[in-house]
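@channel sequence for tomorrow's demo:
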Amino acid sequence: MIEWEVGGEKPGESGEETRDIVGMEMGTLFPGEQPTLVDEELSSVIPPVSPPPFEPNEALETGFSPENPSLIKDIDSVYKDLSLDWIQKIELIGFRNYAHESVTLGPGFNLVTGANAQGKTNLLEALYLISTTRLLRGRRDHEAIRDGESRMAVSVWLRDTDTELRITLEKGGRKRALLNGMSMPRAADLMGRLPSVTISTADLLLVRGDPADRRLYLDLELSGLFPAYLRAFTLYRRAVEQRNALLKHSREHPVSAMQFEPWELEIAQAGAEIRQYRRRHVEELSQEAATAHALIGDGEHLALSIEAADSGDDADSLREGLEQTRSADIARGSTSLGPHRDDLSIWVDGRDARHFASQGQQRTAVIAIKLAGIPIGQRIFGKPPLLLLDDMLSDLDANRRQRLTDVVVNQAGQALLTCTEAEAAGPHILAVARCFRVDQGRVYA
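C-alpha cells (generated this afternoon):
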C-alpha cells in the first residue's frame, strides 16, 4: 500500500508502520510512490511546504490561514438527497493492456472471466480508479499507461443521469478529473461520485499489515462517504506539516509559543472531527461486519474497535496534549499526538486477528469487513454501492464460496466480479450475471 508519513516512530512501530495517508513531513514522496487522494487535494490548492525561510519570531508564511471552517457535524445529513446511479458504459484508452475498449455493463452482476494476465483485473481497476482516484495496484500512476502510449484515459457513463466521469493522465503529468467534459480542480473531487466496495487479495493487509494500512482503509472509506471528512483530513494534514516545519526550525532558532498555537488549534479541531467520524463509522461497521461474518464464517464472532494513540478525544484535550508534548516533539522533529497514530483493531472470538487468527479466519474477517460497506452505503445513498470482487472466489473452499455468493446475491446492486473460470462464481451468480470474456486486452460479451 502507498501511504505518507507524519511524525516519527511510535514505540513498537517501525518507520514503515508510521506511513499514513495524512502525508509525509514536508510533503515529500517516498521513492517510487503514488500520491494519495489527500495529497492531490492539497497540491492542487496549496503549494508544497518549503523549509521555513523566516527569521526567528517571524510567522510561517504559507498563504494558508489556520482557521478551521465550519465542518458538517450532522453525519446523517450528508448525501441524504443523493441518488446513486448505475454504470452504463466504461471506456478505456491506453490503460494498462487496453488500447481502446468500450464495455456496456448490466445493471446487476457482470462476470468477467479469462486466463491470467489478459486484463480482467485491469478492467476492474479502471472502475476502482474512477471511484477512489487511486490505482488498485502499483506505486506510480504512470504505470497505468499502456506500453508505447503517452497518455491514458478512463471514462464512465452513469445510466440514469447521463453523467460522464473521466480520469486522464499523461506521462510526466498529474491525473486530471473531468465531469461531463469539464475539468475539475482536483482529482479528489471525484470522490463520492461513484462509491464502491472492493474486495481483492490485497485486502489481507487490512489484518496482516501495519496500522497505516488500516488507517488508509478507513480514510478512503470515509472520504468517499462524507465530503466533510476529506475536508477535515485535508486541514489536519496541512496543519501537521506546518507544525512539523516549526518543530524542525525551532531546533536552531527561537520560536515563540504563539507561532505554534494556531496550528495546534487547527490540528486539535480537525483531529477531533476525524476521530468523531472514525469512531461512529467503526461502531456501525463492527455491527454490519459481525452480521456478514456470521453468514460466511464458521461460527466465530467478529468485532472492530478504534484504538486511539492518545487521550485527545475532544479538541480541548488534544490541544492541551500538543502543548504539553511540544518540547519532546521539538527533539524528535515531528508531531507525536493525533489521529495519524491511531489503529483499527480486529478481533475474532475476542483475540487479535493479526496475531492469533488463522489465514482462513483472516481472509473471512476481511471479506466480512468489506461486505459491511454494502448496507452502510445502501443507507447513505439509497442504493448499494458498486461492488468490485477481484478473483476472491477461487481462493475460498466450496462452502465459504457458496455462503459468500449467497450474501453477495442478496445484498449487492451493480457488481463486477472477475474469475479465471466462470464456474467459480457459482450457479446463483451465473443465473443472473451478464458474462464477459477477456483475451489480450479485448472484451467479448
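heads up for whoever presents: Residues 91 and 137 are 19 Å apart (CA to CA).
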